[in-house]
Amino acid sequence: MQKNKIDPSEIKLTLIEMAPTLMNMLDRKDADKGEKYLIRHGVEILKNTSVVSIGDDSIDFKDGSKFSTSTLIWTAGIKAPDQVNKFGLQQGRGGRILVNKQGQSLDDEKIYVLGDVSLTDEDGSGKGQPQTVQGAEAGSKVAAKNIALAISGQKTTAEFEGKYSGFVVSIGSKYAVAHLGKNTHLSGFFAQAVKHMINFMYFFQITNAYYFLRYLRHEFFNTRNERNMFHGYISRQGNVLWSLPARLFLGATWLVDVSQKISGKGSWFANKLRLTSFDWLVANTTSGASAAGSDATSSTATTAKATFSLSYEYGNQPMLIFKHMPKWYYNITKFMIPNTDVAFFMQKAMTIFELLIGLALVFGLFTWLASAASVAFVAIFSLSSMFYWTNIWMIPMAIAAMNGAGRIFGLDKYIIPWIREHFVNWWYGKEKSIYK
């Protein structure tokens, strides 16, 4: 409204309903919640009101009164298209084609009818199955099985059985009401969450990661005017230029750290154990150590007591995040790295990965993956009793760099669009009009 210089007070929304109630597929209590939400947000509701004609700037009601309006949005429910009348097949309520429980037309068993245009009279009331996704999915499964049976010359035995888990009515992008199963009633945030979970399930069923990610972006992260279930808290738009220093500094930190592991006395490529917190390996390499040496080590270790701090302080020893490995992680690590040969290989592999992470962040290449790998590595080092609280900043720094920081003075600006274009076209095909 601000963009078009429109004063919100000049706009009035009026909902006109012919029936005496709204949202009749819901429990009355749930529907009333939805109605109150509309009223609370300034929507005028006219129930038991029939429209008989529409003019250029007004509509006429059945009782003879007029309603002035400059914008009319007409919603008349679901009806079979007029083209269906030309098929010569029996039709029921709303022009829907009558089908049996096998999904076949009552006039020709070779014709299968699916979705909203079909009517399966399950209970004999003539209303047919609800025109919802669940009804369409149930009908499509039955038709697919019976078509396969018919092709192979077998009798079509699969029958339609409608299973309806409930209904969710979304009122805008921040509010919804839901009636699930027999006794579950939700409203507000949790009802909206159910709506999104249903959509997530749909993407998983069709195994389409591309459109799933697009859905996340459009419904949660790139919404305007706070129009998402989190009221805009996760969709703030900002200049990713400010995250460039975070990306470069994090990458430089990894490179500085790994430089000491590539060469020199502390090289992780030498066949010398660096994973000193892995006591089952250390025991094998130091079995000949004397008790005197052990005592000396203990004495030295106690000279500087570790102090919790998120920054380095003179005279204080930084504190490990985990002084000892958690039992579950200890068992997993001991299973995966049972001897020094495997340990030497892992030391070299981790060094190479560290180097790649640092280079990727500095050059802005696959920044999101490199940042996620940074979080994973910090977690691994922490659980392995090899990481200090003073370096825990690397996790929030990596998360901050996941906001597209690689597109600012980075290779992601060129690589990611190229991959997206070519991979999507290769995997899903190129979208084009079907009209000639």
Automatic annotation (TrEMBL):
Signal peptide (from-to): none
SUPFAM superfamilies: FAD/NAD(P)-binding domain (SSF51905)
Catalytic activity: a quinone + NADH + H(+) = a quinol + NAD(+)
Keyword line: FAD, Flavoprotein, Membrane, NAD, Oxidoreductase, Transmembrane, Transmembrane helix
InterPro entries assigned to the protein according to its UniProt record, in alphabetical order: 2-oxoA_DH_lipoyl-BS, FAD/NAD-bd_sf, FAD/NAD-binding_dom, NDH-2
UniProt similarity note: Belongs to the NADH dehydrogenase family.
Originating species: Oenococcus oeni AWRIB429
Residue ranges occupied by any FAD/NAD(P)-binding domain in the UniProt entry: 12-137
Name of the protein in question: NADH:ubiquinone reductase (non-electrogenic)
Transmembrane segments: 355-381, 387-410
UniProt EC number: 1.6.5.9
GO molecular function: NADH dehydrogenase (quinone) (non-electrogenic) activity
Transmembrane helix recorded as keyword: yes
